[in-house]
Amino acid sequence: MSVFSEAFDWLSTSTNWHGPDGVPHRVLEHLGYTALTVVIASAIAIPLGLWIGHTGRLRGLAIAVTGALRALPTLGLLTLVVLWRGIGLTPPIAALVVLAIPPLLAGAYAGVESVDRRTVDAARGIGMTEWQVLTRVEVPLSLSLLLGGLRSAVLQVVATATVAAYIGLGGLGRYLLDGIAVRDYPQMLGGSLVVVVLALLLDGAFALLQRLSPT
Amino acid sequence: MIEYRSVGKTYDDGSPAVDDFSLVIPSHSTTVLVGSSGCGKTTLLRMVNRMVDPTHGQVLIDDVDIATRGPVELRRSIGYVMQQAGLLPHRRIVDNVATPLRLAGVPRREARERAMDALAKVGLGADLADKYPRQLSGGQQQRAGVARGLVADPNILLMDEPFGAVDPIVRADLQRQLQTLQHELGKTILFVTHDIEEAFLLGDQVVILRKGGVVAQAGSPAEILAAPADDFVRSFVGLDKGRRRLRIAELDGQRVVVDEHGRPAGVLDPTLDRT
């Protein structure tokens, strides 16, 4: 129990909330990595997922590939990209993008597939182009599953973005890495708690968003 | 005028839906394709707006082979009413009805006004316009589907079992409404159903189909009843069950029409004899 109380002491020490190593700054860095990752992953996975859902093509391949991607350990992937591209922002973002793609892709194609085929048929029958069928019918009607995919991607990334610190970058992972180096367990636990709270807050925000979405 | 010239459709899995079908559908009248499930009637209907492309043969509208027309443009020129109405669940009724107009580039305000007119025409009150499809009864949704089919004032209206999913009383009401509308509008309607009563009620021309889109008989309801082509037709229209074979019986001096089993079907009314 003492580690917990020490962690709360660490969290309530005001010097830990100021400066470049303070919690607010680290949270911002952490959110920055998360946002960049999710934006890149979305740009790849959502159009691809919508296309798969709309056309029904490559579905089996998508399931196999996302399954394989899910099984990749992020830390191992990060090491691999570092060896290939060197230190920098690219390796952690690339590793996290790989983590974020499966839920986004699955949300997109499962969302489109969940739309009643008769509705899609009707939309086509009254003269919508394929693009209109996708953007005016399939996407609006799959919004809640799409958001579900986004929610799951954001949570996984926010929980895993601590790996950025592993190669000398910032974010909340710093507290874990710096703490472990000097066996400062209160700092490690305090940092972990911040990650947990951040993840819960984001999850709550998405839950709210999903409730507000029309479908 | 719609014309089928020896059309056939074999689906990708090799199953033939329609083998060799030819028919002329005259303008400004109602033609009903009627048959059991699997007779290819829906496939035939969907060939007219290129929702299905025939594997061989041609479909012509006013002597133009529709294979030469873009499917999207073609579909926008044809009204389409389907079973379960096919309304878009995320759009309000008025927006659903206005969709064909919006697709054709009609400005939002005008599209909405014309959609409201179309709703009134099919007997839906303005109070329903801003509701979502799921808030309407099956019959009301179907009316909205008809309104959407008519809103852009197309020459051709395709109706694929539009009243199949509503209860008999609502169905009778919708059928009456369609008759009234057709009397007023004179569209070229191609109507698909498995219900021979509906076919005889609505069709100027009725086409009875066997499996594979084979025409068992085509003609007016009276022609088919008076001279059924074969046993299949006789049985399909119910002539074999005695339900349609009527005779006159005397009952307390009144002349009553009864069926083969003596069940009364109606009375003979001399005041109707003028026609």
TrEMBL record, chain A:
TM helices/strands, residue ranges: 31-53, 60-87, 93-112, 157-177, 189-209
Entries under InterPro entries matching the protein: ABC_transp_perm/SBD, MetI-like, MetI-like_sf
Residue ranges annotated for the ABC transmembrane type-1 domain, each copy included: 27-206
PROSITE patterns in the record: ABC_TM1
Domain of life: Bacteria
Keyword set, alphabetical order: Membrane, Transmembrane, Transmembrane helix, Transport
Gene3D superfamilies found in the cross-reference section: MetI-like
GO annotation terms (biological process): glycine betaine transport; transmembrane transport
Keyword Transmembrane: yes
Subcellular locations according to the entry: Cell membrane; Membrane
Membrane topology: Multi-pass membrane protein
Record-linked CDD domains: TM_PBP2 (cd06261)
One GO cellular component, as annotated: plasma membrane
Family note: Belongs to the binding-protein-dependent transport system permease family.
Name of the molecule in the record: Osmoprotectant transport system permease protein
Organism in which the protein naturally occurs: Nocardioides terrae
Species lineage: Bacteria, Bacillati, Actinomycetota, Actinomycetes, Propionibacteriales
UniProtKB/TrEMBL annotation, chain B:
Entry GO MF terms: ABC-type quaternary ammonium compound transporting activity; ATP binding; ATP hydrolysis activity
Annotated protein name in UniProt: ABC-type quaternary amine transporter
The protein's enzyme class: translocase
Entry superkingdom: Bacteria
InterPro entries named among the record's database cross-references: AAA+_ATPase, ABC_osmolyte_uptake_ATP-bind, ABC_transporter-like_ATP-bd, ABC_transporter-like_CS, P-loop_NTPase
EC number: 7.6.2.9
Keywords of this entry: ATP-binding, Nucleotide-binding, Transport
ABC transporter domain span: 2-237
Species name: Nocardioides terrae
UniProt-listed Pfam families: ABC_tran
